[in-house]
Design brief:
With about 375 residues, this protein is α/β, with parallel strands linked by helices. Helix content is about 30%, strand content about 20%. The strands form two sheets. Strands 1, 11, 12, 13, 14, 15, 16, 17 and 18 form a nine-stranded mixed β-sheet that branches. α4 runs parallel beside α5 and α7 runs parallel beside α8. The longest helix has 18 residues. It is globular, with a radius of gyration of 22 Å. The two termini are about 40 Å apart.
């Protein structure tokens, strides 16, 4: 891989099939032992060139609107025609609702008002579509407010105070989503509140969707507790259970590879890379968190410390301060770990910076570039 890394033009994301399948097997074990159905949240991982593999393990996709629903139907379901497409949006648009209804197996409304407006329409278009309402259990320990769907004045989901019992006769299921890269203990806390608030409405439902944010594939996650929670819930209420993780699918499955373009000193050593935190690793600034770099240490741990910066004009386009065993020089490769989930799905062409290519390291060791981007990708999203 070292030889191949040097030959490939940066920047690029490299997803490793062996690591992806490792995660998928963990998720499938949860399915097999708990009876839950796990579907892929495209908002977190939408590398459709891997869907042949992903569709062997997961039961479908959850989409956040028309385009993700189309991707699920066209690229996931072609490998597994029985896969399910679940589509949720904070608010559906009138000019898209018919198409969404045609390609979705489940539609999830964010509010009773949206359900009242569109439920009859989607049923007329697709009589087999199942209808759900997203609820807000008003309990979450999400690490930061920007990722807390149950925060004060949240626009995501319906609270108990605003629940309209008249929708029950139209519902097949209920959804909640309250977690963000969290464990089974946090899920248990949310479930307690969810049941306390909404259990009287579970009668006659087919399923409950526990949403995403379950960090199932992270080392140390209490898988046994998760299985126990799901099993107990299914037995207690006689419903199917869905989970829709995104980061748990792409967690630690690959990297972002960049090249050093310049090195200089301004009170400390600075290295400019051909990638960008702002455009290519947006969650490192939004969360924020410090992306790990392969083979290096924190500032001061090793002999040579550098501030790694992106190649845009944003002053804050900085990955952080890292230390190296040897001095950095132009042309060196820098590999950011765990950059497959919530990265390229959020990429921008800010400053006209080139989008990183997408590559897959196949299970036999071959590296295949599946997508490269150029000027036209920047130009064609403008006018």
């Amino acid at each position: 891989m070292k030889m191949q890394h040097k030959k490939l033009q940066t920047p690029y994301y490299l997803c490793e099939e062996v690591l992806l399948e490792r995660n998928l097997k963990i998720l499938d074990d949860v399915q097999q032992r708990s009876g839950a159905k796990i579907i892929l949240a495209l908002k977190g991982f939408a590398m459709w060139s891997t869907f042949d593999l992903v569709s062997r393990y997961l039961k479908g996709c959850t989409a956040s609107g028309l385009y993700e629903a189309r991707l699920a139907r066209e690229e996931f379901c072609k490998f597994n025609p029985n896969a399910e497409v679940h589509t949720y949006s904070p608010a559906f648009k009138e000019d898209e609702i018919e198409q969404i209804a045609r390609i979705s197996d489940h539609i999830v409304f964010n509010s009773p008002s949206q359900l009242h407006r569109y439920a009859k329409i989607v049923k007329e278009i697709n009589p087999n579509i199942e209808i759900s309402l997203r609820l807000n259990p008003e309990v979450s320990s999400s690490p930061v407010d920007i990722y807390n769907p149950c925060g004060l004045y949240s626009r995501l989901g319906t609270t108990l105070e605003n629940f309209d019992e008249s929708v029950l006769k139209q519902l097949d299921g209920l959804n909640f989503h309250a977690l963000c890269e969290q464990g089974a203990d946090e899920l248990e806390e949310v479930l307690t509140a969810f049941e306390k608030n909404f259990a009287p409405y579970f009668k006659n439902l087919k399923y409950i969707n526990f949403g995403g944010g379950h960090h199932i594939t992270k080392k140390g996650y209490d898988v046994e507790k998760l299985i126990g929670l799901i099993t107990a819930f299914r037995e207690k209420y006689g419903v199917e259970v869905y989970l829709e993780p995104g980061e748990a699918v792409g967690w630690e499955t690959g990297s972002l590879v960049a090249t050093v373009l310049d090195v200089f000193e301004n009170g400390m050593n600075v290295a400019i890379l051909d990638t960008s935190a702002e455009a290519h690793m947006p969650d490192t600034l939004a969360m924020p968190y410090r992306a790990e770099v392969r083979g290096v240490g924190k500032a001061g741990e090793k002999k040579y410390t550098y501030r790694l910066g992106g190649n845009t004009c944003l002053a804050g386009d900085i990955m952080g301060d890292y230390s190296f065993d040897v001095p950095l020089k132009v042309g060196d490769r820098v590999i950011f770990e765990d950059q497959i989930h919530y990265t390229f799905v959020k990429n921008t062409t800010f400053n006209g910076i080139k989008l990183p290519s997408l590559a897959i390291k196949r299970s036999d060791g071959r590296v295949e570039f599946v997508k490269e981007f150029g000027y036209e990708d920047y130009r064609d999203r403008l006018s």
